[in-house]
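User: Reviewer 2 asked us to show a designed sequence for the structure in our supplementary figure. I'm pasting the structure tokens here. Could you produce the per-position amino acids so we can include them in the response letter?
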């Protein structure tokens, strides 16, 4: 089957083992202009989940996934049926201002930043925008911000882990790490379930059976 992931620029799976401390930022969404998603193309598919979003925990929860479902943030019907929520843990990356400048703020007075002060990159959003933290306050910023910072952003890997929490078909509740699912037989791309920007639906059984025939 084709790769199911749609990743934002510079984002990589962190392969982080252990709970997430203050050096990570928790966001209640998955990043990207087109957030990642996948379909379930095998009947009775059971994957192993965790009791919390912590990669150091053993995967001991048998979680049956709904056949023909497309699990993605925009599929509101499926998200309601299985009480699915999406969480990203992103590694906080500190940057340093290379000179005094005013950081623009939506519907507000620009924030004065002095040379040498730290601005923390928290998480990628979409369309080149990302969230930062400065002196404990969060702001959404665009690519122009990097012009004022010392570090070469092209050489930095922005690490993040994408998790989802759901009520499985067998009634159990489990946390699933997206990168754990990439090689699972029975997990496929969204296919015709992706109808356009902001619009995602479940597959028909015939569509799921057809996707199941595609090579990994």
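Assistant: Here is a per-position design you can include in the supplement:
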């Amino acid at each position: 089957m084709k790769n199911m992931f749609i990743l934002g620029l510079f984002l990589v799976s962190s392969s982080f083992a252990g709970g997430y401390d203050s050096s990570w930022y928790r966001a209640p969404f998955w990043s990207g202009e087109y957030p990642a998603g996948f379909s379930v193309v095998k009947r009775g598919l059971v994957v192993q989940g965790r009791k919390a979003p912590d990669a150091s925990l053993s995967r001991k929860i048998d979680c049956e996934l709904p056949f023909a479902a497309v699990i993605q943030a925009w599929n509101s019907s499926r998200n309601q049926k299985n009480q699915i929520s999406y969480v990203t843990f992103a590694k906080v990356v500190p940057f340093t201002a290379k000179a005094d400048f005013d950081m623009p703020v939506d519907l507000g007075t620009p924030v004065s930043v002095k040379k040498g002060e730290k601005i923390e990159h928290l998480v990628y959003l979409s369309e080149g925008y990302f969230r930062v933290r400065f002196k404990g306050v969060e702001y959404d910023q665009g690519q122009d911000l990097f012009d004022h910072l010392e570090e070469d952003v092209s050489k930095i890997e922005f690490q993040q882990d994408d998790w989802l929490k759901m009520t499985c078909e067998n009634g159990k509740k489990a946390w699933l790490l997206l990168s754990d699912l990439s090689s699972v037989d029975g997990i496929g791309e969204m296919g015709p379930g992706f109808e356009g920007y902001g619009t995602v639906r479940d597959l028909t059984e015939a569509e799921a059976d057809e996707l199941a025939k595609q090579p990994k």
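For the response letter, you might also mention the following. The two ends are 3 Å apart (CA to CA). Residues 1-17 have pLDDT under 50 and may be disordered.
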